[in-house]
């Protein structure tokens, strides 16, 4: 019996998270969430359980509110890189969740790398 799309997504998410937990000891995690309308990203310290920086396409100052496209994802990626630099963070691990590294997720990652984040 075939798994539903949701079950496959959850399997992928757990697989990615478990691989990160093995490599990421005490490091920071750049977690991406993509919905049908928006994309958001958080820089998370898993040791303390705190969010250090966050960016979303819902923010009015980015000028991409309501747009769910590659350009909006790139602006969100640039914003998180800038906010991470202000917080003194240069390296992190990229947690794509269950989303494929393609399209908007890839654009966000590339923009964050161009902004100075290393992962």
Automatic annotation (TrEMBL):
GO cellular component terms, semicolon-separated: cytosolic large ribosomal subunit
Single biological process term from Gene Ontology: translation
UniProt GO MF annotations: 5S rRNA binding; structural constituent of ribosome
Signal peptide as annotated in the record: none
Keywords tagged on the record: Ribonucleoprotein, Ribosomal protein, RNA-binding, rRNA-binding
Pfam families membership: Ribosomal_L18p
Family: Belongs to the universal ribosomal protein uL18 family.
Function: This is one of the proteins that bind and probably mediate the attachment of the 5S RNA into the large ribosomal subunit, where it forms part of the central protuberance.
Subunit comment: Part of the 50S ribosomal subunit; part of the 5S rRNA/L5/L18/L25 subcomplex. Contacts the 5S and 23S rRNAs.
HAMAP family: Ribosomal_uL18_B (MF_01337_B)
Matches recorded under NCBIfam families: L18_bact
Protein name (Swiss-Prot/TrEMBL): Large ribosomal subunit protein uL18
Species whose genome carries this gene: Actibacterium mucosum KCTC 23349
């Amino acid at each position: 019996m075939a798994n539903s799309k949701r079950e496959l997504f959850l399997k992928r998410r757990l697989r990615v998270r478990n691989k990160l937990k093995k490599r990421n000891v005490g490091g920071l995690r750049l977690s991406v969430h993509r919905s049908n309308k928006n994309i958001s990203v958080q820089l998370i310290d898993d040791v303390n359980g705190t969010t250090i920086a966050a960016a979303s396409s819902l923010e009015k100052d980015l000028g991409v509110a309501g747009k769910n496209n590659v350009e909006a994802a790139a602006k969100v990626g640039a914003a998180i890189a800038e906010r991470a630099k202000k917080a003194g963070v240069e390296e992190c691990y990229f947690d794509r969740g269950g989303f494929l590294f393609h399209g908007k997720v890839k654009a966000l990652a590339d923009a964050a790398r161009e902004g100075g984040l290393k992962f």
